[in-house]
């Protein structure tokens, strides 16, 4: 059976889950979805997906993807004795999890899946809903290579790059490393923008130069509206970033690797939450940097782009 003929389930239709599931529907997969808030499934139904009333309704699907917020959420949808996907009478052949969760949780679920004859494959992603729509999502994968070959066409439908990093939980580690860098980069960018603000240099000018230099990247481009026009509509919240920093620092302690910059950035993320930005985008690190320097920022109302034109 080709990958295109395999039936697909999708658990979790949040800011990332919904657009990712939609990509699979749009390229022709038979997709059934489940979400705790059922109303969020309607746009996917309009595109051709079906809806399961419970997580276990997806158990007859050959491949089930999941995208949830945290380790405890993944454990619940997979292992809850009353409603979990892997604890019912039947189970899917393959589970592909796209969430950012701890190595310990991933290993626990992998072992539980194996006991039921289900292959568990880790495929955490980098990006947000707009990145998905623009076709620029990146995926890092780990699990046995045979499973990767089976699900690779599906995963490639989700974005522009797929990196296979080996067996077991390697992808969980790489994604955590990635998110540590995400926070550190944003904090460094915030500090130099505040420095420029005090020196009388517009944030738009600084970002334009960075975006067109060797220091520019897709991330700096799509954070430009936040940094210049103070558009903090959430794509990834400080709460979620703090969770990933805690995961990363736990790994650092386990391996006795000092990470002073990471520790300091984690505390600044905590400060952002303490200042009431828990539901804003984590680019509010800029506001914390400004407050520490005694600077009050205002939108520059500049005509800037995030570079994420849909594909």
Number of helices: 13
Terminal residue distance:
29 Å
H-E string: EHEHEEHEHEEHEHEHHHHHHH
Helical content stands at 40-55%
Global outline = globular
Q: Tell me the CATH architecture of the largest domain.
A: 3-Layer(aba) Sandwich
User: Which class of the largest domain in CATH terms?
Assistant: Alpha Beta
How are the strands ordered across the major sheet? 3-2-1-4-5-6
User: How would a crystallographer describe the biggest sheet?
Assistant: 6 strands, parallel
Mean pLDDT: 95
Q: Assign the structural class, choosing from mainly alpha, mainly beta, alpha/beta, alpha+beta, or little secondary structure.
A: alpha/beta
Tell me the CATH superfamily of the largest domain. Answer: NAD(P)-binding Rossmann-like Domain
- The total of beta strands comes to 9
Instruction: Provide the CATH topology of the largest domain.
Output: Rossmann fold
* Domain module tally: 2
Radius of gyration: 20 Å
Low-confidence stretches: none
- Percent strand equals 5-15%
